[in-house]
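Good morning,

Attaching, inline, the backbone tokens for the sequence recovery test we're adding to the shared suite. The designed sequence is right after.
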């Protein structure tokens, strides 16, 4: 086994993969031409995680799943084909706040992406530097079916901080219609809007079946319904 990689916290990110061009597959930017940076590491371990390669040692050799990329490495990658939309995902991207803030500010300064979205669980508050540079936070608070305890997955102060940023949308991963009641409780308690409901699934048959199940109940609550476009197109292929 290789020794763990060591990064310089001032200039390096621990990355799982970079890929694109592809399409953003989820949320309000679905279908947009996009590039992705998937950061390594997650402090949550959802039962249905669709990116276990970023954190699950039982299924993956985590040393082989990470690489150290400097800010300049990533800027050079983007400069080779500037992104209309850059999506920074994980894992949990906000586990690396200092260097992530420097990266997104540098991307803005060099005009290497028209828009920057960060996918986050809503359990870690972003720094002011990150908030000022990004276009949107796609926040996915985890529901009870994630297998996590409520205090692990719901952090009231962080939810309110993200809501107050004016840059958050709320994207909930759903397995059953009853999950919508749990979303309603969170929306009412913390003032979360706009709401996007997305079916859990890593194959097209499951995603389509759950979208059909959810469509009318989501319409009745006047929420938005998100597909998983990349799954419909390419199933569970990585780097798509």
């Amino acid at each position: 086994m290789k020794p763990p990689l060591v990064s310089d916290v001032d200039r390096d990110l621990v990355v799982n993969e970079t890929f694109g061009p592809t399409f953003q597959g989820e949320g309000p930017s679905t279908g947009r031409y996009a590039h992705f940076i998937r950061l390594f590491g997650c402090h949550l371990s959802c039962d249905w995680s669709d990116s276990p390669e970023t954190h699950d040692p039982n299924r993956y050799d985590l040393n082989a799943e990470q690489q150290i990329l400097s800010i300049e490495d990533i800027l050079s990658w983007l400069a080779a084909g500037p992104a209309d939309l850059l999506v920074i995902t994980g894992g949990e991207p906000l586990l690396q706040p200092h260097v992530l803030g420097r990266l997104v500010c540098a991307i803005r300064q060099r005009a290497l992406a028209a828009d920057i979205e960060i996918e986050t669980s809503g359990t870690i508050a972003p720094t002011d530097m990150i908030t000022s540079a990004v276009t949107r936070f796609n926040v996915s608070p985890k529901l009870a079916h994630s297998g996590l305890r409520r205090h692990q997955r719901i952090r009231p102060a962080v939810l309110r901080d993200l809501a107050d940023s004016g840059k958050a949308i709320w994207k909930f991963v759903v397995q059953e219609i009853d999950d919508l009641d749990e979303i309603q409780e969170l929306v009412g308690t913390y003032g979360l809007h706009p709401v996007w409901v997305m079916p859990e699934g890593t194959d097209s048959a499951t995603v389509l079946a759950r979208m059909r199940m959810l469509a009318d109940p989501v319409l009745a609550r006047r929420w938005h319904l998100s597909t998983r476009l990349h799954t419909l197109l390419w199933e569970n292929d990585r780097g798509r």
